[in-house]
Amino acid sequence: MKHVGIICEFNPFHGGHQHLLRAVRGADTVVCLMSGNFTQRGEAALLPPTARAAMAVEAAADLVLELPFPFASASARYFATAGVRALGALGIDTLAFGSESADLAALQKLADAAPDGAYRDKMANGAQNMGDAAAYFAALGAEISSNDILGVEYLRAIKKEAPHLASFVLHREGAQYRETVLENGGYPSATALRLALAQGIDITPQLPRVVQEVFSAARAMYGVAKTAALGAPMLALLRAYGVKKELFEGIAECSGGLWQRLVKAAQVASDYESLCQAAATKRYTDGRIRRALLYMLSGVRQSDLDAHPVYLRLLAANARGREFLNETARRRIIPVVTKQADIAGLGGSAARQRELAQVSDGLYALCCEGNLSPHALQTAKPYLI
Hints:
Elements: E1 3-8, H1 15-23, E2 29-35, H2 49-58, E3 63-67, H3 76-90, E4 94-99, H4 104-113, H5 119-126, H6 130-138, H7 146-161, E5 166-171, H8 190-198, H9 209-222, H10 231-241, H11 258-266, H12 272-279, H13 286-298, H14 302-306, E6 312-317, H15 319-328, E7 336-337, H16 348-367, H17 374-378, E8 383-384
Parallel strand pairs: 1-2, 1-4, 2-3, 4-5, 6-7, 6-8
Antiparallel strand pairs: 3-6
């Protein structure tokens, strides 16, 4: 492994993430491609991107770049495909990821057999829900856990988008994915940490020591972002314009009659959580509903998800990370930007992705408890050590 890439959220950065970074520390460069304001379930990240990236660099990552919105908020197939495309274009030679099974041969076999065609939309819209995931993998004659589903999608994307990438899989340690018990030892899950934080529990002692100072400072400055703050805008949009079908045609995740169900749910819901609950059915997973609401509010179309990331934003770096950027400047085929002006000359696709990023910044600022403006998010300087 020379240049290792990790596709991540770090929401929040915990011991399991540190375990993965330590496992690949022998590489020349460890590059993290991290989600920005919103995560895969369509929810606001606890802290702004630069703060989370700073924790990663303090914990041994060399370089943290932002996986652009809306790919970072997409279901497993789009999330994995965009991430692999970007890392391949950046000049990374190995993708590292955690896995419950850590059986690369078995995961590759599933990736090779992963269906397209009629299963594509189902997989794209339900990969994080074990009900839909079970239905998907029943076609393969296999049972598989949550992180392994994402691992299969990484391997599938490598085969199609960046076959030069090698794969390094590490056995996931500590609490299981979506485990809600906050353990005093081992590695608590991100779900348990977020739940504890929502209950007013100080999770700082549960985080790796090297990131505790950054986490505490960021939390004191920004508070904790809460997706529930978008409930009122979502209800206003659905109640005022839900009858105008043309406004929602082509919006990502809203096919199959979901937008009609959301419009109906908005008539009885009073806030974000009750809106999600009123729309929930066995057909539509909770993750898909939350992504659909975010995409409706931000105007993300299916064509936006089908596109390629055309630039990556620098969030944090140490000396080795900056050296990697200098060494690959001439051969990488995706630009790395540090300010909004860098995007202006990259063409129409970049302009559209910049537009969506700005919308994302505006919505995320509404979610933050602290005084954080869209302008501050757009002009935030990279964290450099």
